[in-house]
Amino acid sequence: MDLVLRDLGRVLAGQEHHTNDLAELRREVAHERVERLAVAERLDDHISVTVIPPR
Question: What kind and span of H or E run contains 20?
Answer without folding.
Answer: helix 2-50
